[in-house]
Amino acid sequence: MTITQLEYVLAVDKHRHFRKASEECHVSQPTLSMQIQKLEDSLGFVIFDRSKNPIVPTIEGEIFITQARVVTREFKKLKDIASDPIVGIEGEFKLGVIPTLAPYLVPLFLSRFMKEFPKVDLIIEERTTEEIIDKLDRDELDAGLLVTPLHNNQIIERVLFYEPLYGFISKDHELYHKTQLDFSDLDKDGLWLLQEGHCLRGQVLNLCKKVKGFQHFESGSLETIKNLVAKDSGYTIIPHLDVQDITGARKKMVRPFKQPVPTREVSIAYSRIFYKEKVIDAIEETILKLIPKELKSYKNTDVEIVPID
């Protein structure tokens, strides 16, 4: 049994396809298939059921694949220590970011981070919370910037900041004439929500549980929703970093909430079996240097953290 064989197995499990797995591993399909077959012969059981399309792991294969992820992670940790035992801030690092953070937070820190840590090959993927958690588990992402708490014992969460939520209201809507919003205002018709899979949707729905009922519309993009509200009607809920980018006439459409202010907890999260914590430290340090000063002043005792599910 070799690390290379384990990497081939994990690639097949990821793609559920031998050809796609061989392309990712930069080997021919016959070579990859032969190595997995050789591994199965030595183990005494079949890892993948090749009669299915797409192929799927067998019961024994599922157990083996879970442990193979642990072994390959630990092997990578040894390689990382051996290659750079002192600095450790270099190499490829895959970071997942949720869609309601990516447009606002990534431009805030990316250029500074790349300038200060040029040896890090930072790859950013925009993913939903569920996708990030799944990819962290599969070791396909090194860390994620997302909204917490996740209530997942396999993931470590480092809270970066607390981000208040605001109303974004059409000039034609009755809430436009209010200077501050209350939870009870969310019973008004015309609320726009993000589609399933976005954590901000779950938070808004949790806010709406405080009222008896509401009618709403849905869209897949927060930017699309804001354009619909601005040019048509209705209202929606947006985070603080988004408000920072709003200028001109649209600034007048933003409304804060009364205390306790509904807020989301933003964290960097990663697997408990991890070997690139120095890169995590560097990302965290860079973000905390560059976020707006007002976000640094919020504590979890000052606000109401809205759950995401």
Outline the fold blueprint.
Blueprint: H1 3-15, H2 18-25, H3 29-43, E1 48-49, E2 56-57, H4 59-83, E3 91-97, H5 102-116, E4 120-126, H6 129-137, E5 143-148, E6 155-169, E7 191-194, H7 199-208, E8 216-219, H8 222-231, E9 235-239, H9 240-244, E10 254-255, E11 262-271, H10 277-290, H11 293-297, E12 304-305
Parallel strand pairs: 3-4, 3-5, 7-8, 11-12
Antiparallel strand pairs: 1-2, 5-11, 6-9, 6-10, 6-11
Helix pairs in contact: 1-2, 1-3, 1-4, 2-3, 5-10
Rounded to the nearest angstrom, the radius of gyration is: 23 Å
Mean pLDDT over the residues: 87
Low-confidence stretches: none
Can you tell me the number of structural domains? 3
> In percent, how helical is the residue content?
40-55%
Structural class category: alpha/beta
Which architecture of the largest domain would the CATH scheme give at its second level? 3-Layer(aba) Sandwich
What is the CATH superfamily classification of the largest domain?
Periplasmic binding protein-like II
Oligomer: single chain
CATH topology of the largest domain: D-Maltodextrin-Binding Protein, domain 2
CATH class of the largest domain: Alpha Beta
Order of helices and strands: HHHEEHEHEHEEEHEHEHEEHHE
- Amino-to-carboxy terminus distance: 42 Å
What features would you describe in this structure?
With about 300 residues, the protein is an alpha/beta fold. The chain has helices at about 5-15, 20-25, 30-45, 60-85, 100-115, 130-135, 200-210, 220-230, 240-245, 275-290, 295; strands spanning about 50, 55, 90-95, 120-125, 145-150, 155-170, 190-195, 215-220, 235-240, 255, 260-270, 305.
